[in-house]
Amino acid sequence: xxxxxxxxxxxxxxxxxxAQLFSKEKVEYDANQGRGSTDFDLLRWGYFLGIxxxxxxxxxxxxxxxxxxxxxxxxxxxxxxxxxxxxxxxLRLEPGLILTTxxxxxxxxxxxxxxxxxxxxxxxxxxxxxxxxxxxxxTKRINxxxxxxxxxxxxxxxxxxNEKNPDDNRNGQFRMExxxxxxxxxxxxxxxxxxxxFTPSIRGVFAINDELIxxxxxxxxxxxxxxxxxxxxxxxxxxxx
Length: 241
Fold this sequence. Notes:
The structure is a single chain. With 241 residues, the protein is mainly β. It has a single domain (2-240), classed as Porin, CATH 2.40.160. Helices cover 8% and strands 50% of the residues. Strands 1, 2, 3, 4, 5, 6, 7, 8 and 9 form a nine-stranded antiparallel sheet that branches. A hairpin with a 4-residue loop joins strand 7 (181-192) and strand 8.
């Protein structure tokens, strides 16, 4: 799925680039015809749809087998508020909803031999309200293209964290902190179409703080060997302005 989307985006950009950069006729489109290009508005609004691939990065106390993380593609949707600083720099607020699922698979070396098959797996379904504040740095517009890089920091509210749940993994409850903090880096390209601006982008998201809540008993096979557990992921977003 991920590879198909990347191939689709690449072919789309290449086809449009061939038409715009190498054709004799180079018509520069202005998004929102009749009101002027949105690039010159102080404030601009839009929305995005996307796919995310979330993972965990583990650091361990002892050198045992790694906890295997099985990733599944998730869904992202949200709004965009863009503040123009100058022709090359914008500040962006992109609050959104992120749905994702990860599965943790443990080696039997973590247990004492009395474990069941269900003890070796934990499914983590997460629903985040994600709030990034980003700086977008663009190049000069070339016909109907404007590449950019983007970076910044974000926080989130994990509605499925189980942070306040008194039960732990002995009762099948995997617990996480509800307010992770991230830094984000990415790149993309603004494509100026006749009636709107379409922007595909790829962004890496990396948690700064440890998100794991340890079990209530010492030497837990699920959390005892984990020094830190931090979310990391890739966002493939499609923005419409």
